[in-house]
TrEMBL record:
Entry-linked InterPro entries: 2Fe-2S_ferredoxin-like_sf, 2Fe-2S_ferredoxin-type, 2Fe2S_fd_BS, Beta-grasp_dom_sf, DmmA-like_N, FAD-bd_FR_type, FNR_nucleotide-bd, MRET
Organism: Marinobacterium stanieri
GO biological process, one term: methylation
Sorted UniProt keywords: 2Fe-2S, Flavoprotein, FMN, Iron, Iron-sulfur, Metal-binding, Methyltransferase, Oxidoreductase, Transferase
Name of the protein described by the UniProt record: Vanillate O-demethylase ferredoxin subunit
GO MF assignments: 2 iron, 2 sulfur cluster binding; metal ion binding; methyltransferase activity; oxidoreductase activity
Cofactor(s), names only, from the UniProt record: FMN
PROSITE patterns: 2FE2S_FER_1, 2FE2S_FER_2, FAD_FR
Length: 320
């Protein structure tokens, strides 16, 4: 028994690999059979099948409309294995299974001005967005925050393509290089703010955007990893379609409790950021811990991320 997602995979070949820094590699992928890859929009990501039960999401960083996909991947020492394995095994000529692009992070193309802020490897979706905005002749600025110049990827391309629209912020370059998202967001009326990067950085930029007076509808973000606290009081879950009832322990996820009872939940990130494990709720009140559902969707309480969220009620009924 699984959640209902599109499992169609594409066999792809790594046509090129460039190591931009000592921990960021850039991969270009094409369809292994030579056919055109599905078109994508700025902000889209793909799943990469790293191994059995190991699927990771990466943003497409090239210009929308390209026939290949380009990924920038950080070899993250804190990763649970995905990026480390990709860095070790994915050389030019290697084959890999990927999903078609999905876009949970679309641009509002009618915005008066777009403020794109990428922290570290979170620059990748911002590059595709900057290309889309530039091609459409829209007003935008691109800010790339990195610990240092030597840790930053894509620099030559960004400077060449985006010129005056690009500002670089390096932590080791002193106070003058620091970004002030609140001032930037407040500077232009009708600004839409986009942010991607480490979760603490994103939380801070989002807060700054709110403090500048931007409504939630003008603040856009996509988390790629997050610290999730799955602990709490025990509760009961009834999996309606499977007709299985489980007790979810204080430090256990709903997905883990269901798996132990033979109900398999399709998962990917296991950190509440990708949306793969989202399931409908027909009874009870979820205690949302994910970064995927919007605030409005969370208030509706009719969906839940089974990998990390819990229950405020003593019992939940979920559609799996
Ligand atoms: S598996 Fe990614 S949100 Fe649950």
């Amino acid at each position: 028994m699984t959640t209902n997602i599109d499992n169609t995979l594409i066999q792809a070949t790594v046509t090129r690999r460039d190591d931009h820094t000592d921990d960021i590699a850039v991969f270009e992928l094409a369809a292994a059979d030579g056919s055109a890859l599905p078109v994508f929009e700025a902000g889209a990501h793909i799943d990469v099948v790293v191994g059995p039960e190991l699927i990771r999401q990466y943003s497409l960083s090239n210009a929308p409309g390209a026939t290949s996909y380009r990924l920038g991947i950080l070899n993250d020492p804190d990763s649970r294995g995905g990026s480390r394995q990709i860095h070790a095994e994915l050389k030019a000529g290697a084959e890999v299974q990927i999903s078609a692009p999905r876009n949970h992070f679309p641009l509002a193309m009618d915005a008066e001005h777009s403020l794109l802020i990428g922290g570290g490897i979170g620059i990748t979706p911002m590059i595709a967005m900057a290309y889309a905005l530039k091609a459409a002749g829209k007003s935008f600025e691109l800010h790339y925050c990195s610990r240092s110049q030597s840790k930053a990827a894509f620099l030559e391309e960004l400077e060449r393509e985006f010129g005056d629209s690009l500002t670089l912020h390096f932590d080791d370059a002193g106070e003058a290089s620091r970004i002030d998202p609140k001032a930037l967001a407040a500077a232009r009326p009708g600004t839409h703010l986009y942010v991607c990067g480490p979760s603490g950085f994103m939380d801070w930029v989002i807060e700054q955007g709110k403090a500048a007076g931007l409504p939630d509808s003008q603040i856009h973000f996509e988390y790629f990893n997050a610290e999730v606290d799955i602990s709490g009081e025990a509760f009961e879950v009834y999996a309606e379609t499977s007709d299985v009832t489980v007790q979810v322990g204080p430090n256990e996820s709903i997905a883990a409790a269901l798996k132990a009872a033979g109900v398999r939940v399709q998962m990917s990130c296991e950190e509440g950021v990708c949306g793969t494990c989202i399931c409908d709720v027909s009874e009870g009140t979820p205690d949302h811990r994910d970064h995927f559902l919007t605030d409005e969707e969370k208030e509706d309480n009719d969906q839940i991320a089974l990998c990390c969220s819990r229950a405020k009620s003593s019992r939940l009924v979920v559609d799996i």
